[in-house]
Write a structure and sequence with these properties.
Length: about 450
């Protein structure tokens, strides 16, 4: 048995990098394997909310504030730009900041990736390592990459996104042994094609919305066409945008799955042709925003969702989109993967030995702590997507009720539920959680209690 716990992380996305950074802080040995030859700085807006205290503990809070803007609201319009209603993230009259300490923040995905990367030693990340197969036994786990290299460790974390190769290998192994639940063998639900981008910096006099304190999203719904366009003011005077194409009626198309299952520049411009004439709430049309967006910052992906019920077996565990792929309409994908990275690191910091039995205990606790909220987020993102995209009179009516008549107490209850649990890294000093709302947190590790003589066991 390997004497020291050594974690192999597959995937240097937000989940993998957050885990790397936390393991680094916890002095737990790890390596990251990323298939791309370098980090892909793609994507548009990401929302972070109940994880601000972790960034504060890590001394990254001020940087996060600087790179992000507080999220204010989501205004919905029809194709003619007639106003349909608003979903307020800070309901008028509520002292959101006083209550929860921080507003949710909107950050460009490339900025969040760079922020995480800045705290992970470069030597820990191996690029150009597409993991193809995995093998595990009682004592260790081994990954094999496309370049014929192999690496061995005591725990393998699949943070390799929605089409996780770690998950596929794990599930193959479980299926062979007759242990894979049927629900996990089913394909993901394929709902939307999506194209995202971030503009170059623009003159805020031309886009006064950039001078506002809050980032208020504008959503334009296609009338007879299944497209919506999102505009998201970002820091550094940039505009993030997203076009979604509702393809739920088309069903799952395997050929499309093969071609467009990864975030990438392929075929993005085809989708955009259908909507570039849509009027933009800032003036002009979407085409004007596309024009000020560097082509290499535009990417396309098929949006699928699924909550997988099997997250671990043996010395392998999944994290982030690899086990709970959600649509972006609840703004929780990055949040959930960072929270999982935290939970896993806290448990590993206190692990008693490197035995299979102890690893299984830790992975069981990790799943128990994370699955409920992750499952709820997958479901609510799906419902938000359906509410926003539903066509016809019923769709108009449901949206009207949601945007204009949702009672304040209900909005508050949902917001409360995101803030009830705000965990911290158990292995560094805790910070005071801001805001008057009563929050439940975890406890510092027993090894962190002053005077503790409990040794690091692994
Ligand atoms: C390029 C990109 C752009 C995105 N843009 C947006 C956006 O605009 N808005 C939004 O809400 N969400 C976006 N997302 C999704 C969002 O980042 C995730 O939902 C969330 O952050 C959870 O991240 P994750 O780390 O679990 O997975 P991901 O962010 O998908 O990261 C997975 C990582 O694993 C790597 N990988 C995959 N397979 C292998 C393999 N076999 N071997 C080694 N490495 C592998 C991938 O290259 C990637 O770096 C984007 C994701 C990506 C990858």
């Amino acid at each position: 048995m390997a004497s020291e716990l050594h974690v192999l992380i597959v995937g240097a996305g937000i989940g993998g990098l957050a885990l790397a950074l936390l393991l680094e802080k916890a002095s737990i040995s790890y390596e990251v394997f990323e298939k791309a030859p370098e980090i892909k700085l793609l994507g548009s807006a990401i929302t972070v909310s109940s994880i601000m205290q972790i960034f504060e503990q890590l001394g990254m809070y001020e940087e996060l504030l600087e790179l992000s803007r507080p999220f204010g609201a989501l205004h919905v319009r029809d194709e003619k730009l007639d106003y349909k209603g608003t979903f307020w993230s800070r309901p008028p009259g509520d002292d959101y900041e006083g209550l929860y300490g921080d507003y949710p923040r909107v950050i460009a995905r490339p900025d969040l990736i760079n922020l995480l990367l800045s705290r992970v030693p470069a030597k820990r990340i191996h690029y150009g390592k597409r993991v193809l197969t995995t093998r595990q036994d009682e004592d260790e786990v081994t990954i094999k990459c496309a370049d014929n290299t192999a690496y061995t460790g005591s725990l393998l974390v699949g943070a390799d996104g929605a089409y996780s190769s770690v998950r596929q290998n794990l599930y193959k192994e479980l299926q062979k042994a007759g242990h894979l639940p049927k629900v996990d063998a089913k394909p993901m639900g394929y709902s939307f094609d999506c194209v995202v981008g971030i503009s170059d910096p623009v003159n805020p006099d031309d886009y006064p919305v950039l001078k506002e304190e809050f980032s208020e999203f504008e959503i334009v719904l296609g009338k007879d066409v299944p497209f919506t366009v999102w505009y998201m003011p970002m820091t550094k005077n940039r505009i993030g945008w997203m076009v979604t194409h509702d393809v739920r009626d088309l069903g799952t198309n395997v050929e499309r799955n093969m071609r467009c299952s990864e975030w990438g520049p392929d075929a993005a411009l085809d989708v955009l042709k259908s909507v570039s004439h849509f009027k933009c709430p800032y003036g002009g049309s979407l085409a004007d925003i596309i024009d000020i967006t560097p082509k290499e910052m535009i990417s396309k992906v098929m949006l699928e969702d699924k909550f997988f019920s099997t997250w671990y077996s043996g010395r392998t565990v999944l994290l982030g989109d690899a086990c709970h792929k959600m649509l972006p309409f609840a703004g929780q994908g990055a949040n959930m993967s960072i929270l999982s990275a935290l939970e896993l690191t806290n448990l590993l910091f206190d692990i008693h030995s490197n035995s299979q039995e102890e690893i299984t205990r830790v992975l069981k606790e990790y799943y128990a702590a994370r699955y409920e909220l992750a499952k709820w987020c997958v479901g609510s993102a799906n419902q938000n997507g359906a509410m926003l995209h539903r066509k016809g009179t019923v769709g108009d009516f449901v949206r009207y009720l949601f945007l204009n008549w949702m009672p304040q107490w209900l909005i508050k209850r949902v917001t409360d539920s995101f803030h009830v649990y705000r965990p911290q890294a158990s292995f560094i000093p805790f910070v005071k959680v801001r805001g008057s709302f009563k929050t439940y947190s975890n406890k510092p590790s027993r090894r962190m209690v002053p005077g503790s003589s409990i040794p690091k066991s692994v």
